[in-house]
Design goal:
Layout (H helix, E strand, L loop, with lengths): L15 E2 L2 H28 L7 H27 L4 E2 L1 H13 L5 H13 L17 H12 L8 E2 L1 H4 L1 H5 L1 H8 L1 H20 L2 H28 L31 H6 L15 H11 L3 E2 L6 H7 L7
Antiparallel strand pairs: 1-3, 2-4
Helix pairs in contact: 1-10, 2-3, 2-4, 2-9, 2-10, 2-12, 3-8, 3-9, 5-10, 9-10
The structure holds zinc ion (ZN) (2 copies).
One zinc ion binds next to helix 2 and helix 4.
Length: 317
């Protein structure tokens, strides 16, 4: 799912690439990074009967969740897609690798897909809108299924040459994006080794692989997918955005604050997605700490005037 093209010969102005090669990659990616982690999670749950988890497994799951969510939410999303702050090369590389470990596609593909989502949000062309299946209960279910799962194997691939030219020009970042599989494997090996060493057993290594690796990929993936699905259907819509994006408090903690999604569509380049003190936003907490440490700077935030201008006066906020 990187930048290989075939006979349709897209040029810089081609917005989406549709061909059998890309479709094949989408199927393969879905099989390896969505379906197999799903099966692995079922195996892990069944294994609890014989192999109950302890603080090591829970700790690894939480730490790996926090690291990969930092990669996806702060790195892939707030930095690479929306340029909501500036940072230096070492942090750029760290963000790119941590986000890749999540197994949600190579960096350049991820950014291209997300930029197209913002361009066409809830309109034809949006790769994963749940709102293009008209009204009614069953239509809503169909829309939710498409935005959470179905789109993974059925979307027009946004052309990186059009959507992410600056990333394609960056040799280091392009290389990290191409080595996608390497980062995923490292993300599986590390918890396996830590589990094996801490328990000093092969069973400990297997538990580390399952809970810090496979289950973590499944959970992080579904947490991020819930922003596409749930946060475009359920919640409040305090700001004018021209789409159906919603602020959904129920998944704010696991999504690292991404589920304040109406805020995000209203102020795309804001590093903070939770805009009120009570809107939990771990992703912005990471940016704030890094800014205090001098590791990131020029952090973008909307002004009170900008927020007032987009506020819907009869909002249900
Ligand atoms: Zn959205
Ligand atoms: Zn975004």
């Amino acid at each position: 799912m990187t930048t290989h093209f075939d006979s349709t010969r897209p040029n810089q102005k081609t917005k989406v690439i549709i061909n059998d090669y890309i479709k094949g990659l989408q199927y393969k990616h879905f099989w390896w990074y969505n379906f197999i982690p799903f099966l692995g999670t079922i195996v892990a749950l069944i294994s609890l009967w014989w192999l109950p988890v302890g603080s090591i497994e829970v700790g690894m799951l939480i730490v790996m969740w926090a690291l990969t969510m930092t990669g996806v939410s702060v790195g892939f999303h707030r930095y690479y897609t929306h340029r909501s702050f500036k940072t230096h090369q070492v942090m750029r590389v760290i963000f790119a690798i941590l986000g890749s470990v999540a197994g949600q596609g190579p960096l350049i593909s991820w950014v291209a897909i997300h930029r197209r989502h913002h361009e066409c949000s809830d309109l034809p062309g949006d790769p994963h809108s749940p709102n293009l299946h008209s009204q009614g209960f069953f239509r809503t279910i169909k829309g939710l299924w498409h935005s959470h799962v179905g789109w993974l194997i059925d979307h027009d691939y946004p052309n990186p040459t059009y959507y992410t030219p600056e990333l394609l020009r960056d040799k280091t970042i392009s290389k990290i994006s191409r080595f996608y599989l390497v980062w995923i494997v490292i993300g599986l090996v590390i918890p396996t080794v830590i589990g094996g060493l801490l328990h000093w057993s092969w069973i400990g290594a297997l538990q580390g692989f399952l809970w810090g690796g496979v289950v973590r990929i499944f959970l992080v993936d579904n947490i991020i997918l819930s922003v596409n699905s749930v946060s475009h259907v359920y919640g409040t819509h305090p700001y004018q955005t021209g789409d159906q994006s919603k602020n959904n408090p129920w998944v704010a903690i696991p999504t690292f604050g991404e589920s304040w999604h109406n805020n995000h569509h209203a102020f795309e380049s804001s590093a903070a997605i939770g805009l009120k003190w009570w809107q939990v936003d771990f992703g912005y907490a990471v940016v704030w700490i890094l800014a205090k440490l001098g590791l990131v700077w020029d952090v973008n935030l909307p002004t009170a005037k900008m927020m007032a201008a987009k506020k819907i006066t009869i909002a249900q906020d």
